[in-house]
Design a protein that fits this description.
- Belongs to the TVP23 family.
- It holds the Pfam family DUF846.
- It is a single chain.
- The chain is mainly alpha-helical.
- It has one domain.
- It has seven helices and three strands.
- The chain has helices at residues 15-19, 27-50, 54-80, 104-108, 112-138, 142-166, 174-199; strands at residues 83-89, 95-101, 171-172.
- The protein has a three-stranded antiparallel sheet.
- Strand 1 and strand 2 form a beta hairpin.
- It starts with 14 loop residues before the first helix and ends in a 13-residue tail after the last helix.
- The relative contact order is 0.15.
């Protein structure tokens, strides 16, 4: 199924963590756990100051969101908190969602400071995208609503997956499958939107309503 083991002995979990619980054993991993997601928010909030092109901002934010989703799902969750969720398709073509967590003493080696940063990053950024979604929805700002919907889907998918991992669930199909389907639907909408924008005359960017 998955070629990469969840418990990787090459990851520097060790005695130095218990001796220095406030020190980050994986500072670069921790940095990139926050970098892409915070960068997407900053560009969404302040991008209009630097460019009036909606397409440029749209593509840049989508790239950052994609890099964030992949990094959090495949790297930072496994290293920072010993959790991982993933998907595989069996020989019958059935899709399975798997939620894993390190067990026993290995799980206790997780650095508490890194763990708090990991969960704070997941919850806080998701909450901000929820706020932006509400603003765009009630202001009927469809261009930005599409972008925020994609951001919210990706962030909720990672958050839900790791909550399932922490809760000890091994297999599930419910919300994760729904999130995946919704994501692919949004990708199709992105293509349609980009095509229509490319075929229409260039117009000034619409700044997200309610954001100063």
């Amino acid at each position: 199924m998955d070629p990469h083991p969840l418990i990787d002995d090459t990851i520097p979990f060790g005695e130095e963590i218990s001796q220095n619980p406030g020190k980050l054993p994986h500072p670069y991993v921790t940095f990139f756990h926050l970098f892409f997601r915070v960068s997407a928010l900053v560009i969404y909030f302040f991008g209009g100051i630097f460019t009036q092109s909606f397409i440029t901002l749209f593509v840049l934010i989508i790239l950052l969101l994609s890099m964030d989703f992949w990094t959090v799902k495949n790297i930072t969750g496994r290293i920072m908190v010993g959790l991982r969720w993933w998907n595989y398709v069996d020989d019958d073509g059935v899709s399975h969602w798997v939620y894993e967590s390190r067990k026993g003493l290995v799980q206790h080696r997780v650095n508490p400071t890194e763990s708090r940063i990991f969960w704070a990053g997941l919850w806080s950024v998701t909450a901000v995208w929820v706020l932006f979604f509400i603003i765009c929805f009630f202001s009927i700002n469809f261009k930005w609503l599409l972008l925020v919907s994609i951001a919210l889907t990706l962030n909720i998918a990672n958050l839900y997956g790791y909550i399932k991992c922490k809760g000890g669930n091994q297999n599930s199909t419910g919300i994760s499958t729904m999130a995946s389907s919704f994501l692919f639907q949004n990708i199709g909408k992105v293509r349609e939107t980009m095509s229509s924008l490319n075929n229409s005359p260039t117009s000034p960017i619409m700044k997200p309503t309610g954001i100063v």
